[in-house]
Fold this sequence. Notes:
Radius of gyration: 18 Å
Structural class: mainly alpha
Strand content: under 5%
Helix content: 55-70%
Mean pLDDT: 83
Low-confidence stretches: none
Amino acid sequence: xxxxxxxxxxxxxxxxxSLADPEAFAALFDRYSAMLYRYVSRRLGPEAAEDVVGExxxxxxxxxxxxxxxxxxxxxxxxxxxxxxxxRHHRAEAARYRxxxxxxxxxxxxxxxxxVAAGVTASATRPALAAALSGLPRRDLDVLLLVAWGDLAYxxxxxxxxxxxxxxxxxxxxxxxxxxxxxxxxxxxxEEA
Length: 193
């Protein structure tokens, strides 16, 4: 008889438990699906996000026996899988940025936290930001968006992408410089006094 997973179980414990009881893996979906959906939705749009998130968990489930159980937090692993799947949809992502550059600014559609975050960013910078993002090399864009939209720490991004932390830092620095330059060397997230 297997013990059902609890909210306190580490991700590694859930994955290990799912080897004997596959239903235990559902707890990871419950923990991370909304977070992954927000990240993928921002990159590909809500239409593709559900499919990519579902595919992320299918891939993770099929590869769970190879998960490094020394890593207690599976979030970087899941974001790494999602980012690789997003790369398959890069043409759609590039088209989305081109459309955002041309489209009028809509009001926020998401919850209160998303509205606050959207309110901080000046709406006038949206076309320039979309143009800057679409001009970044894929590897720099992945790092920038994993930090900005995935809320991953540098070490987690490094694990997600399988690169050294120093590479994450240099790619992020390069991406930030290019985006800042595209926005006229301003940071729309900082209020001017």
